[in-house]
Specification:
15 helices, 8 strands
Length: 331
Amino acid sequence: MPKKIVAFLGCGSWGGALGDLLSKKGYNIQFWHRNSDTCHEMEISRKHYLLPSIVFGKNVSFHSDINFAINGAKYIILAVPSQDMRSVVCRIKDSLNPKSYIVNVSKGIENETLKTMSEVISEIVGDIPNFITLSGPSHAEEVVKQKPTAIVSASNNILAAKEIQNLFSTNKLRVYTNQDLIGVEIGGSVKNVVAIAAGFCDGFGYGDNTKAALITRGIKELSKLGTCFGANTETFFGLAGIGDLIVTCSSVHSRNRKLGEMIGRGSDLESVLSKSHMIVEGVKTAFSIKKICEKFEIEMPICEAVYKVLYKGSDPEQEVDLLMTRNLKSE
């Protein structure tokens, strides 16, 4: 019986880690990367360009032709930056097999439309019965090292969620199902912005008290935005909410927290981004959340502060102090 094919569109650190995991489970992996030189380099070296500890087996191939990469794939994993999702999906929409499982692992809200990734994708290709978002507290660096990790397979179709749960589960990666797709997407998006604020605090040398307060109030902001999108509040107290928020605000692997820390130490946004080899999703998401807050007339003070620092040149330490001196009220 031939092995099933899994196509990964995008081969960054998270896509690379998940592809490596599935290849070790015996699946044939077809990676697409937009840069043909990067594809050739990985094909020859058998190593990942961001995670050199990965050594890819013979069942992993690399392609710069996106439609060739998805050919024959039962599972198509969308692992591209959120702001590029629309253009990538438009390129494959006419080649998609309606029976394939489409799995989004990107976290963000599109700037132009203020839509989540599931909304963007369904706008392009219509209703997808087998659409799933995979999310939760999961740094690629730790998954590659097989450190125990738990994530969520979210879909409006519980059978599809269970299919992907079984696909990715190992003795080191535990996958739960969740039918609150929009809530899981909101949690994965907002936590990146809050993590930038956590990084500000690390940059000025604030302590554990500050971080704990920020994370706790950040959950409130996740929940507030989720309500606007019709999410289940309970989702934000699970892996895709508080779990992902804790790890992103605290970890040395978090690129969003790291960006905030560097800005807190005096670097400007442009110079930090120019030194990063990976996309920092929270920067663009901060812009989207600001526009959503204006549209729905809701207050998200932490996300507002991050927006003002990134896009208006506000002083990060002053913005954190303003958060502490807002009008006093009950919790």
